[in-house]
Amino acid sequence: MSAVKGERAVPAPQAGHAATLNRRRLLNTRGWTFLLVLAAVAVGVPWLNATGALPDYAVSLVGKYLCFALLAIALDLLWGYCGILSLGHAAFFALGGYAMGMHLMREIGDRGVYANPDLPDFMVFLNWQELPWFWSGFDMFWFAALMALFVPGLLAFVFGWFAFRSRVTGVYLSIITQAMTYALMLAFFRNEMGFGGNNGLTDFKDVLGFDLASQETRTGLMVLSAIAVAIGFLICRAVVISKAGKVIVGIRDAESRMRFLGYRVEGYKLFVFVLSAMLAGLAGALYTPQVGIINPGEFSPANSIEVVIWVALGGRGTLVGAAIGAVIVAAAKTVLTGLFPEAWLFVLGGMFVFVTIFMPRGVLGVWDAMVDGMWQTRGMDPRERRLAS
Amino acid sequence: MNLLVLDGVTRSFDGFKAINGLTLTVDPGELRAIIGPNGAGKTTMMDIVTGKTRPDGGIVRFDGHDMSKTDEAGSARLGIGRKFQKPTVFETHTVEDNLLLSLRDNRSVFGTLFSKTDHAARIAELLALIRLEDRRLDLAADLSHGQKQWLEIGMLLAQDPKLLLVDEPAAGMTDEETARTAALLRDLAGDHAVIVVEHDMEFVRALDCKVTVLHQGSVLAEGPLDTVSANEQVIEVYLGR
Ligand SMILES: Nc1ncnc2c1ncn2[C@@H]1O[C@H](COP(=O)(O)OP(=O)(O)OP(=O)(O)O)[C@@H](O)[C@H]1O
Ligand SMILES: [Mg+2]
Fold first, then answer.
1. Do B109 and A260 count as a contact with CB atoms less than 8 A apart?
2. Per the structure, how many domains does chain B have?
């Protein structure tokens, strides 16, 4: 038997080569390009607005798209890399949005219709005498900002703890995430819940002293959103290129093999789920002040499904692709709902069917195939390119 | 001392006793072949040893630990490696990464998140052993069936387990690969205890070790292959068909 061992001399690991292989760079060409585009948007859009080339509302629109891009990146980490298809991710986004909305409500103070210094208008309208306990603390910005991350994270933790330990996977898991967001939507619709019921939270005035109606504040929020996308991307990218990222992909591809190698799969899934939910919450917190309202409709199952379509269209398991998909679909939605409002859902459904059948790896997948082809025609090994990314 | 002890283990599925009073011991470094007709309970026995399936009754001890309360990851951490009937590797990872993930190292989320070791030397050694040096940067999905089997064996070796459970390794292999696999398993025994489940009699003969015959969830016969295959009962339930 020593024949098997001895037959081939063990090759000495080539210095440098071997060492770099398992260490992928935090920023490859694609990552740098993505960050440069974000920077260009953060600088270029306000500049175009100042010169009059872009109308004021376009700045907030771009800010909104950026929030969607962050939400898509968050879902891609979970679905594209770990294989967990959440059909309830809009719930985490909406919770982050509500946390920020609660702060903005408290900031209104006595400038509301009823001029009550403590109670938001809808509570006065419902004849409530005092602020419910869960509204306390939200007068402080830092507390609301923390809650925008903590509440989605906690919900994901509790939900994931039970689901992953009892080994609920695949389509069953997707269905219960959908049920989760639906249940939250029904709950938030109720006036007694204390979140403004049907109308949600709106009529915001300012944040940290900045007037939300002013173009400067709107521009600032858009730039903050671009920074949040960059940070979210870098965090996800750091996870993905680490050894933990390899474990996560391994769980997606062969979960039981991972278990038999000694990895506690539940722990990894929980980590990814919570991180993803917190990033979604951050996106929601930036969304609310830019659109000026947060209502229970944000929890609607259709919203979560739309996020899945963004990621599928852009190319899952790429992070950058998810952001691209979000912007493409959201921009298409803006244009089409303006032109033919009834047609939008059909177009969305059509896009999903088209991508599933003709571009299973999404826009970036098509791009990659083209670049691989170019490498091959030049006689180079596409493996090298893949490993370098 | 025995490395693995199963004593009067039972397990039923919907009233059907898949494992029925199974008693079996394996010594450290021992090579053991387990044969038996379809549905004899061979795979279920491995499920019980690795904590995938809980026994209804009886004792399962591995290296001094009670295995009836561990899960799969726990059994792996205690030193049990398992090869499935169907080769299971991480298709979208490179051959190298498949081995990297298998090597002994910190398995916790935060341990892997901040891991910096690439184990280059050990991986090169394993690649040579499973003869996949030139496939190192290829995705596992691009390997042939036989190469995937070898990669999976390499992953088991990377774990450096005290006990290796190998379910039908020769399935789908060419004659030459089968012979090499038998030789490899023989070579591994000694450093690791190895339990091999196999239908292919040529393969079992090549292993040249003690054979246990399972039937209806318990041991029917045990001993050298020649003795066992001369056993009347064994011929009746298995070999004779
Ligand atoms: N999870 C399960 N649920 C129900 N029945 C099961 C389960 N696992 C195994 N069984 C049954 O237990 C019996 C033993 O199955 P097992 O897979 O252990 O047999 P085996 O000896 O490995 O057979 P083969 O040679 O076909 O691989 C079979 O009748 C099988 O149907
Ligand atoms: Mg079996």
1. no
2. 1
User: What share of chain A in percent tops pLDDT 70?
Assistant: 92
Q: Is the dihedral of CA A18, A24, A27, A33 positive or negative?
A: positive
What share of residues in chain A are helix, strand, coil (percent, to 5)? 75, 0, 25
Cα–Cα distances in angstroms (integers) from residue B81 to residues A200, A223, A225, in the given order:
55, 52, 47
Considering the domain boundaries, does residue B226 fall inside one?
Answer: yes
Where does residue A95 rank: exposed (0-12), middle (13-18), buried (19+ CB within 10 A)?
A: buried
Note the ligand closest to the C-alpha atom of B44: 1
The Å distance, Cα B43 to ligand 2 centre, comes to 4
CA distances from B127 to A24, B101, B116 (A): 21, 14, 21
Q: Record the pTM.
A: 0.92
What are the tens digits of pLDDT across the range A75-107? 999 999 999 999 999 999 999 999 999 999 999
- Residue from A127, A104, A75, A4 nearest B128 by CA: A4
Quote the domain boundaries for residue B175. Answer: 4-86+163-239
The verdict on residue B59 lying in a domain is: yes
Within a 13 Å sphere around the CA of B120, how many CA atoms are in the beta-carbon half?
Answer: 14
CA B214–ligand 1 middle distance (angstroms): 12
Nearest CB neighbour to A262, from listed B77, B97, B131: B77
Q: Where does ligand 1 bind, in terms of residues with CB under 6 Å?
A: B 13, 18, 36, 38-44
Interface contact B90-A253, CB threshold 8 A: yes
What ipTM did this prediction achieve?
0.92
Predicted confidence (pLDDT) at residue A230 exceeds the cutoff of 60? yes
| CA distances to A234, B61, B64 from B6, in Å | 50, 7, 12
Instruction: Write the DSSP assignment of A320-388 as a string of letters.
Output: HHHHHHHHHHHHHHHHHHHH-GGGHHHHHHHHHHHHHHH-TTHHHHHHHHHHHHHHHHTT--HHHHHHH
Kindly give the confidence (pLDDT) of every residue in chain B, 241 residues in length, as a single tens digit, with 9 standing for 90 and above. Answer: 899 999 999 999 999 999 999 999 999 999 999 998 888 999 999 999 999 999 999 999 999 999 988 999 999 999 999 998 788 999 999 999 999 999 999 999 999 999 988 899 999 999 998 889 999 999 999 999 888 988 998 999 999 999 999 988 887 778 888 888 899 899 989 999 999 998 888 899 999 999 999 999 999 999 999 998 888 888 888 755 5
Kindly state whether residue B32 falls inside one of the protein's structural domains: yes
CA distance B26 to chain A (A): 20
Residue B76 lies in a domain: yes
For residue A232, the CA-to-ligand 1 centroid distance in Å is: 46
The Cα of B156 is separated from the nearest Cα of chain A by a number of Å equal to: 8
CATH number at residue B8: 3.40.50.300
Cβ neighbours of B200 (radius 10 Å): 16
Give Cα separations from B20 to A51, A362, B214 (angstroms): 83, 52, 10
| Smallest CA–CA distance from A264 into chain B, residue | B73
- The pLDDT score that the predictor gives to residue A23 is 57
